[in-house]
Amino acid sequence: MKHEEYDVLNVEGGSHIKMWTKGVPVEAEARQQLSNTAKMPFIYKHLAVMPDVHLGKGSTIGSVIPTLGAIIPAAVGVDIGCGMMAAKTTLNARDLPDNLGPLRSAIEKAIPHGASPKTRGFKGRDKGSWETPPTPVDAAWAQLKDEFDAVCLKTPKLAKTNNYRHLGTLGSGNHFIEVCLDETNAVWFMLHSGSRGVGNAIGSHFIELAKQEMRTHFINLPDQDLAYLPEGTRHYDDYIEAVGWAQKFARMNREVMMQNLIAAVRTVITKPFETHVEAVNCHHNYVQKEQHFGKDVLVTRKGAVSARAGELGIIPGSMGAKSFIVRGKGNPESFNSCSHGAGRTMSRTEAKKRFTIDDQIKATEGVECRKDANVIDEIPMAYKDIDAVMEAQRALVEVIHTLKQVVCVKG
């Protein structure tokens, strides 16, 4: 079925799917995942699919999954609360140094990033964690600790995770810190991270508990990563508490990183400047209770951003591509949502096979960033065309600012 804004995919024995994907590719495997999710009996109304949709674990990344009476932990994923933060400053392009290398180095020194190799017997400190957390980390952790202790009473093994020492750190993969210029040459700081090691542990633990529930009750699923926790059960309640805490951790993680990013920039740029002239901090992997079509429902955004009427959000491109600060239009059919980025067109493994360091250097020309073999999987050509993605969701958001990075720090 066709609609002016979106296409409708009808699923036999399941809810229908509304797809804001006009003009962008959607792989067959992602369509199959969407159909599998739509067949779950507790989906409310329909699935909403964003233009950056691509294959994920159990459910596609770039989908909005409203549920009644149950939750799918793997749909929320293991990077709970992953999201973006951006702050506009009073700096202009002319205030940046001609050589951006020292600025990038200052940021890399100020914020732990990357991850130590997961080799058997490795017992050293994760290079992506703090050796001695600074004062902003202590202040933020004080706001999180009591609730975390309560979560650990129910799931004791979480106490042994990397939590406090990961607060205010970047991680690896597609997480990044950027200095950007907007359409007026104003300088923005932008970063992308989530709940780090402790969020991964929470997600992994409850995904396995959900799978055990399915085996215990002999429930057959089209994909084992669609294992769910029914409302009213102990595991459901424990998960809701833990995932809520992880989302608070993720938001605070970005706030602490932004503080340290600003402090690092001030060591290189001595001109006084203000920050947070405009500021956004938004999740794009999370679950929360919302009201839609007259009912309170759980909305899982797996690679999607809340876009209520007037709400600001961030849609980043890939390394070397444009990013956007957007204002939501409050489209009810999308459950007030928009995409969380461009969306991959190929796996990381495929990107490393297909592209070279020379390709990476050319694609990130003019950006002060890593240009080595370990970041080829983040090359812009491994992602969908961000302009096509934005065109496909014109009914969901309006663009307020267009950003182009000049410095990019990757884990």
Automatic annotation (TrEMBL):
It catalyses: a 3'-end 3'-phospho-ribonucleotide-RNA + a 5'-end dephospho-ribonucleoside-RNA + GTP = a ribonucleotidyl-ribonucleotide-RNA + GMP + diphosphate; a 3'-end 2',3'-cyclophospho-ribonucleotide-RNA + a 5'-end dephospho-ribonucleoside-RNA + GTP + H2O = a ribonucleotidyl-ribonucleotide-RNA + GMP + diphosphate + H(+). Keywords: GTP-binding, Ligase, Manganese, Metal-binding, Nucleotide-binding, RNA repair. GMP binds at residues 174-178, 284-285, 316-319, 323, 340-343, 410. Its cofactor is Mn(2+). Residues 114-133 are annotated as: Disordered. GO terms for biological process: DNA repair; RNA processing; RNA repair. It comes from the Bacteria. SUPFAM superfamilies: Hypothetical protein PH1602. Mn(2+) 1 binds at D79, H175. The keyword Transcription does not apply. Mn(2+) 2 binds at H192, H284. Binds 2 manganese ions per subunit. Its EC number is 6.5.1.8. Monomer. PANTHER family: RNA-SPLICING LIGASE RTCB. This is 3'-phosphate/5'-hydroxy nucleic acid ligase. It comes from Collimonas arenae. The lineage of its organism: Bacteria, Pseudomonadati, Pseudomonadota, Betaproteobacteria, Burkholderiales.
